[in-house]
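Milestone M4 deliverable, item 7.
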Amino acid sequence: MKRYRKLIVAGVCLALAFCFGAVLVGCGEDSTETENTEATETEQAATDTAATEVDTSEFKLVEPGKLTIGSDLDYKPMEYLDGDTPAGFSVGLMEEICDRIGLECNYLAPQAFDTLITQVAAGTKMDVAASSFTINDERLELVDFSDPYYESNQAIVILDDSTIMSRDDLAGKVLGAQSGTTGEEWIKENIQYDEYIPYQNASDGLAALRSGKIEAFVYDASAATNHVANEYSDCKILDEIPTGEEYGIAINKDNTALTEAINNALSEMYADGTMDELKAKWIEGVSDEGESTSEPATDQSKDEPGADESETDDPDDEG
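Output delivered:
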């Protein structure tokens, strides 16, 4: 009997030893498999990074290794100065593009908007201009544009206590817009106004609206939404006009390799959701102080003034 007991105990010990060994082997295989998977993923990431590296040797740059960018930096929330630092949707866009094409993002000090297109065409001071330019045939005669990165609409702004109830009520009224913009163009093509007064910038137009010199002011919905929400609480947006303008980055015509690289970066940003993130941060949630907020605004866009208060067909007129 004792002999049988010893045999039984020995058998149990052997069985336990076998099971324990199998567990160890299994754990070792799992660990090795995990390590191999992680190594493969790391190698794949390195391969993907190498595949997306951009050859910058064919870029014609004002300063090697840098993308020199011109902008008026005066149109929140699209592009503006936060203190001394460029900020806004277009700035975030350009910073992301520079990161993807391997160049340092170099913003010049704010430039006069009506000189930007000609400066890009000259190619001596800046490589590109990113200032919410509407792509049009006249500008395309002087520069190339990237693929569109934003669709623009116009907005009709009136005083909060205005008796104007719809677009139809604009007939016979005194209206204003920024000189040389699509807002001005829309008024002249669509409204039988009593008088039209052009203004050099949105601030002047809104001041005129407040003082009663005009009864409605038409300009880009991006700035209008931001202004009404923050600085001009006594004004409101009567209507947003779906003009369907498209913004592009102005690039020198001789810089085809740079144009291609920027377009590839834009395509990637649309595909991976980066463009939506930038819009959510800067357009749907920017306050007057330039800080991100949780309050969404309506879809927005920009249209800036021309060089003076008279009518002009200057290709540098904003919007």
